[in-house]
Design a protein that fits this description.
Largest sheet: 9 strands, mixed
Number of strands: 31
Shape: elongated
Number of helices: 13
Distance between the termini: 22 Å
Structural class: alpha+beta
């Protein structure tokens, strides 16, 4: 490939467009500078040929890793006939909702494909993958590389298993494939993707247990956060993270119940200020938040003053479905059930219709503070049973950095930022006595020669555009990219200085050995060509000029020195990089 004919060239760093401030990670800015990307609107990009080559390499490496991992590739989606489409539409009622409960997994085209085969339990697990512009496991929009949806590229994996035990084994293998094997093939040993448990798909589903792990790349500028144990590897997003909290142990001298009292504290909203004003430990203060469920239920959630309520955990404790609405109660509802304005709610004297729940951090306290349900007043020395019924205790708190890990009971949870690159969804079902719910699932013959539905499967999606941005960020120095041979757009960057004929002959010789080469044939000064060679980051730079004679100057991108060697020796060393 002649650089002069390439669509997209390097961009001067001091140009107006590149000097403006940007929220992009450094790797993305380098992609723009090196001519791999073109910004078509603010924060939105299109791939240029060099970038497309790297993306193609990532795709091929993922395919290779998947095939070696026992997966079979299928194209997607298959075509749907008019009659089938019409039948699908008839399954819905006039208001657009299903006329009867329909297993969501049945909408997967691969589920429908497997129904057309007679499958034995000996053939399971069945592992398939495809490359598509759609992710089968929903992912947040990438904040690293934003492109049009039609240009997105995801690698999707599916595994259909015969049992929950096999499902667990396959999940571990798939996570290893996505977080280790693929990155090994891509020659990115310093890069790691961390499986993080998330709340997606955690809503109650009939007969199913679902877990979703998102794959994170840890980075200080990441737009998402998660907690991870510093010892055992447990990681979870804030909405589902669990931890060991520090219980408040009161001195024996304060074990005696004191007389309850309402204290005036004008405008004191906030646990820190309130604890200081009352001269008590913040762990003796209590936040009581009022939530409205749909339009006919009010829930009061109590939590210790040094913690915050996690709405996702509260939803799960209340066993709410995806269609149920949970929101902070509006002022008029607060006024109706407390007789007071927002900010002073407490569990004592609430309307009888209000359901009270409390985080476990509120338990085992004596003489604690609660809202007085009176504007500017706070109740001190409140106690369970004596002043109000002991509520249901549960885990509804947001984890904090420094909490103990509840998985290993030894480590500490640390808060990290990162970018989401993929997700793995695991579904394990239990067939009810009337298994009509799973009637649309593919069947397999079990070891007793009985046909049963496939109840256990895994879906996974990896966003290759995001991986491209991340690979760019970890494969560079101050001068440009240092692509590993497996990802580089070309293996060789050829610089010629007034030796066009010799360079053309060398290009032909390299091409015959199936060595990809980018020949900088532009009428530029040598310094500019050397600079662009470093910026683009091909693993090898070859220089040919009148001074090199019948030899070439050979330089590896990651090494500071170069040497003069024969062309045959250069070809051998380049071929060795590809192995």
């Amino acid at each position: 490939m002649q650089y002069s004919k390439l669509l997209g060239k390097s961009v001067e760093q001091n140009s107006k467009k590149q000097s403006r401030k940007t929220d992009d990670i450094d790797g993305v800015q380098y992609l723009v500078r090196a001519g791999f990307l073109k910004e078509v609107s603010t924060g939105r990009y299109v791939l240029l040929p060099l970038g497309q080559m790297v993306l193609n390499n990532l795709t091929n490496l993922m395919k290779e890793a998947s095939l070696l991992g026992g997966f079979s590739e299928l194209s997607a989606p298959f075509f749907e006939s008019v009659s089938t489409s019409a039948t699908s539409k008839r399954e819905k009622s006039s208001n657009g909702s299903p006329s009867e409960p329909i297993d969501a997994a049945s909408r997967d085209v691969y589920m429908q494909l497997l129904k057309r085969f007679q499958i034995s339990h000996k053939e399971l697990p069945i592992s398939i993958f495809n490359v598509s512009c759609n992710a089968i496991v929903p992912l947040p929009a990438s904040s690293i590389l934003r492109v049009d949806s039609e240009a997105m590229k995801f690698v999707n994996h599916r595994i259909f298993c015969r049992s929950a035990i096999e499902l667990e084994t396959c999940q571990r293998s798939l996570l290893d494939l996505l977080t280790q094997t693929f990155l090994h093939f891509a020659q990115l040993p310093s890069l790691s993707f961390i499986p993080v448990l998330c709340a997606a798909g955690a809503e109650p589903t009939p007969f199913e247990t679902t877990s979703v792990h998102r794959l994170y790349w840890q980075h200080d500028t990441g737009d998402k956060t998660y907690f991870a144990c510093d010892l055992c590897g447990y990681a979870a997003e804030p909405e589902v993270a669990v931890s060991n909290y520090s219980p408040f142990i009161q001195p024996e001298s304060e074990q005696e119940l004191k007389e309850r009292e309402d204290v005036l504290g004008v405008g004191l909203i906030g646990a820190d200020k309130l604890a200081e004003y009352l001269n008590i430990d913040i762990k003796l203060t209590t936040k009581t938040l009022l939530f409205q469920v749909n339009s006919d239920r009010v829930v009061a959630a109590m939590i210790r003053g040094d913690y915050d309520v996690c709405e996702s955990k509260l939803r799960r404790f209340l066993n709410l479905s995806a269609t149920d609405v949970l929101q902070l109660a509006p002022p008029e509802i607060v006024q109706a059930v407390t007789g007071c304005v927002v900010g002073y709610a407490g569990p004592i004297g609430l309307a009888s219709s209000v359901e009270v729940v409390a985080d476990v951090s509120c338990a085992n306290r004596i003489n604690f503070e609660v809202g007085a349900n009176r504007e500017n007043y706070h109740t001190i020395n409140a106690n369970f049973d004596r002043d109000f019924p002991t509520p249901s205790f549960c885990d509804i708190r947001l984890v904090q950095a420094g909490d103990g890990c509840s998985q290993c009971n030894a480590g500490t949870l640390l808060k990290h930022a990162g970018f989401i690159v993929g997700a793995v969804k695991t579904v394990s079902s239990v067939a009810p006595a009337d298994s009509s719910y799973f009637s649309t699932r593919p069947l397999f013959t079990d070891d007793s020669n009985k046909q049963v539905p496939m109840l256990h499967y895994i879906c996974a999606s990896l966003d290759l555009f995001t991986v491209l941005g991340i690979a760019a960020d970890v494969s560079r120095d101050l001068n440009g990219f240092i692509w590993p041979a497996a990802l580089a757009p070309h293996l060789v960057y050829l610089v010629d200085i007034s030796s066009a004929d010799a360079a053309q002959n060398l290009c032909r010789e390299l091409t015959q050995q199936r060595i990809s080469v980018l020949w900088d044939d532009r009428n530029q000064k040598p310094a500019k060509k050397f600079s662009d060679s470093d910026l683009i980051g091909n693993p090898v730079r070859l220089l040919i000029s009148a001074k090199t004679g019948g030899q070439v100057e050979f330089k590896l991108r990651h090494e500071p020195t170069c040497e003069l060697i024969d062309v045959s020796a250069a070809i051998s060393r380049i071929l060795a990089l590809r192995r």
